[in-house]
């Protein structure tokens, strides 16, 4: 039997045999749940086949016989004995490792490791991301890049170590869900437990006497509990035939209603675990079947969704290039606006790309607008607006006066004010002697031009209020024929000669739209015609996004259910005393501590008391003699310890209950728990005719409470 200790203000309950700390049946086996810590051991642990505490054989920690293994049993001689011993060891260690893997502690560690492993993928350039950024990282950090390469930090999400954490977490969740699901199904099929012998020991309890028929009281309790969505079951028969009641009064045959609620708490736990598995599967599918590419498009140009049209492209291992959505679109215009005054000066207000797109087989285009966080959806593909900038339009003539290059050249922005850098490469060029040559220009485009001694030419505002193009020029070999891929936004000057002025300094010129720069020695000219806007798009084909969303929503709902729903039990018992009156007892027990438990029991008691009104204090009590006769009815349900009472075997126990008022003052006439009084009597309600003082008994263990108990004993 469970033991109670009086701590002065609360009840500390030592679990009885087969019970956990909350009075619920203790778990009998199965892997440790993720949201419910296990006992840290078990009969299958590496400590032996006994209690798992160490050693061998009986698990007592002592050294076993020679040749004994970690899981008990001596090693028999011969090949058969060796095979039996080996099989027992392998099976024992396998079960032990499986228990560790499916434990809550391991799952939390794996989740933490998975979060840590994702950090390098956000901080270090990935091969599936921007190749230009990755190439620049290799160029600036050669030694560090080699170390990162060996550690697979440029491919974090497909690395061996990330996959190992991912798979172990997946297995751990599956290993927890399967046995807990069967346990939950068993709980759903089981009946609510029978009422305990002493309902007054519950954290919340109430009792009163009434002249109502026991069957009518139980019927009303059963109906009210069913209305409140409790799972209920009737026990015994209030009219006879049932077991003798807890009072031990001869001929008092009790009937009871047992009810339980809150099964969705465990369902929430299972939903949370299943949702995590769904999210892991969706994450894996999203990486294996996805495709993603980027394209920079100047206003007036277009894009066709084929592999050769992308500036950069990446896809999952199982993605088929032939599954790319068939469509194309033209960039008709780009609109951007910025704040021009106040503390938000220069802050973007609007980015919008106006496009016309055609799906495969369309003869007429469809106009659409793409904005930030509002992509264009074409079939399974999504087109996102991710960047924008300016493309200066230049015309280059060679030494023979022929046009060698003309058109817009995208420059990449470097700051929030729109300062952009870029290069112009002229490959089809003849010098003043008619010899083939190549030209290269490095430049800075400033939408709103400004120059200072420390920064040089730059932009002070992102709108093109005063556009200026600043260039320096080179001639020689651009290195395009070496077979080595080059970044279109970088200029390799290792085999080129820079144009110098008369003083030997690099020649630099700043040009406004319409200006022309005559190259020295008759090598041609460059004219700054104006500028166009460009927009950067990301075209992606996501996979399993719907499953990922469903998993995330399920995880939130499951976690909320496991935290907010409380599993609790309620019992209602009626006993007919020798005086012919009915004693009604109610008790409630929750899985966890909650103020809602006594409140809910009080509400149930208030409803039930309308069918079974409590007798007044001056009603004739039942005769004494060890029965569970009830005294006057206290007014509130509580779990505060009010003193000591003698159990049936004479041991002192503390009881939950107290009262602050008389039965007549109870809200709605609802009875409330009876406070124990004289520790020398088995009857918790005190001797007949001398009810316990409902106020004095609320002081647990204090001087007033002691004095009241002495006075009651003297009166008795």
Provide structural commentary:
With 716 residues, the protein is of the alpha+beta class. The chain has ten helices and 28 strands. The chain has helices at residues 78-101, 104-123, 131-140, 142-150, 160-189, 214-227, 264-289, 545-564, 596-611, 703-715, and strands spanning 3-6, 11-14, 204-210, 231-236, 255-261, 291-298, 302-304, 312-315, 327-338, 348-359, 366-371, 376-378, 381-397, 403-408, 412-413, 420-430, 436-446, 449-452, 456-459, 468-476, 496-498, 508-511, 516-518, 525-541, 568-576, 582-590, 641-646, 652-656. Strands 6, 8, 12, 13, 14, 23 and 24 form a seven-stranded antiparallel β-sheet that branches. Strands 15, 16, 17, 20, 21 and 22 form a six-stranded antiparallel β-sheet that branches. Strands 3-26-25-5-4 form a five-stranded antiparallel β-sheet, with helices on one face. Helix 3 (131-140) crosses helix 4 (142-150), helix 5 (160-189) runs antiparallel to helix 7 and helix 6 packs across helix 9. The longest helix is centred in the N-terminal third of the chain and has 30 residues, at 160-189. The two termini are 30 Å apart.
């Amino acid at each position: 039997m469970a033991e109670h200790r009086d701590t002065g203000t609360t009840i500390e309950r030592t679990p009885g045999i087969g019970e956990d700390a909350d009075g619920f049946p203790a778990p009998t086996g199965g892997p440790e749940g993720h949201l419910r810590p296990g006992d840290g051991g078990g009969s299958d642990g590496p400590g032996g086949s006994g209690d798992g505490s160490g050693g061998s054989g009986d698990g007592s920690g002592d050294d076993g016989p020679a040749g004994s293994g970690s899981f008990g049993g001596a090693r028999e001689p011969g090949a058969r004995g060796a095979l039996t011993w080996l099989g027992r060891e392998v099976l024992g260690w396998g079960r032990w490792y499986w228990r560790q893997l499916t434990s809550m502690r391991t799952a939390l560690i794996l989740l933490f490791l998975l979060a840590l492993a994702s950090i390098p993928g956000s901080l270090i350039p990935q091969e599936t991301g921007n190749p230009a950024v990755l190439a620049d990282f290799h160029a600036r950090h050669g030694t560090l890049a080699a170390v990162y390469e060996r550690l697979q930090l440029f491919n974090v999400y497909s690395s061996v170590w990330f996959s190992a954490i991912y798979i172990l977490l997946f297995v751990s969740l599956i290993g927890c869900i399967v046995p807990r699901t069967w346990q939950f199904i068993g709980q759903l099929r089981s009946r609510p437990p029978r009422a305990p012998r002493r309902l007054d020991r519950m954290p919340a309890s109430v009792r009163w006497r009434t002249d109502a028929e026991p069957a009518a009281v139980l019927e009303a309790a059963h109906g009210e509990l069913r209305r409140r969505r409790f799972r209920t079951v009737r026990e015994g028969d209030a009219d006879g035939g049932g077991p003798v009641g807890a009072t031990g009064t001869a001929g008092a045959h009790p009937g009871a209603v047992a009810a339980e609620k809150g099964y969705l708490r465990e369902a929430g736990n299972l939903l949370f675990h299943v949702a995590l598995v769904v999210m892991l599967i969706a994450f894996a599918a999203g990486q294996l079947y996805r495709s993603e590419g980027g394209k920079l498009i100047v206003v007036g140009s277009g894009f066709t969704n084929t592999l050769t049209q992308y500036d950069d492209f990446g896809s999952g291992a199982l993605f088929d290039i032939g599954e790319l959505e068939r469509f194309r679109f033209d960039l008709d215009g780009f609109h951007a606006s910025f704040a021009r005054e106040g503390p938000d000066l220069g802050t973007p207000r609007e980015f919008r790309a106006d496009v016309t797109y055609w799906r495969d087989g369309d003869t007429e285009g469809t106009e659409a607008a793409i904005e930030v966080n509002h992509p264009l959806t074409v079939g399974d593909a999504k087109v996102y607006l991710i960047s924008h900038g300016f493309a200066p339009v230049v015309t280059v003539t060679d030494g023979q006066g022929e046009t060698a290059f003309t058109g817009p050249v995208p420059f990449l922005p470097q700051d929030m004010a729109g300062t952009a850098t870029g290069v112009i490469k002229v490959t089809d060029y003849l010098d003043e002697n008619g010899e083939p040559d190549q030209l290269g220009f490095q430049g800075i485009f400033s939408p709103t031009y400004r120059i200072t001694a420390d920064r040089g030419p730059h932009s002070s505002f992102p709108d093109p209020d005063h556009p200026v193009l600043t260039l320096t020029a080179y001639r020689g070999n651009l290195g395009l024929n070496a077979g080595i891929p080059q970044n279109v936004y970088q200029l390799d000057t290792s085999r080129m000669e820079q144009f110098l002025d008369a003083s030997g300094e690099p020649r630099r010129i700043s040009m406004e739209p319409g200006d022309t720069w005559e190259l020295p020695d008759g090598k041609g000219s460059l004219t700054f015609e104006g500028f166009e806007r460009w927009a950067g798009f990301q075209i992606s084909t996501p996979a399993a996004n719907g499953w990922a969303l469903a998993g995330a929503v399920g995880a939130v709902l499951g976690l909320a259910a496991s935290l907010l729903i409380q599993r609790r039990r309620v019992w209602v018992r009626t006993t007919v005393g020798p005086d012919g009156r009915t004693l009604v007892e109610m008790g409630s027990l929750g899985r966890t501590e909650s103020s809602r438990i006594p409140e809910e029991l009080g509400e149930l008691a208030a409803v039930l008391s309308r069918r079974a009104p409590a007798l007044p204090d001056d009603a004739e009590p039942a005769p004494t003699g060890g029965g569970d006769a009830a005294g006057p009815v206290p007014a509130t349900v509580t779990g505060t310890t009010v003193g000591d009472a003698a159990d049936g075997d004479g041991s002192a126990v503390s009881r939950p209950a107290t009262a602050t008022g008389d039965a007549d003052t109870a809200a709605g006439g609802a009875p409330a728990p009876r406070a124990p009084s004289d520790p020398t009597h088995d009857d918790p309600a005190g001797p007949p005719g001398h009810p316990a003082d409902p106020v004095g008994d609320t002081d647990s263990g204090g001087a007033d409470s002691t004095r009241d108990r002495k006075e009651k004993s003297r009166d008795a």
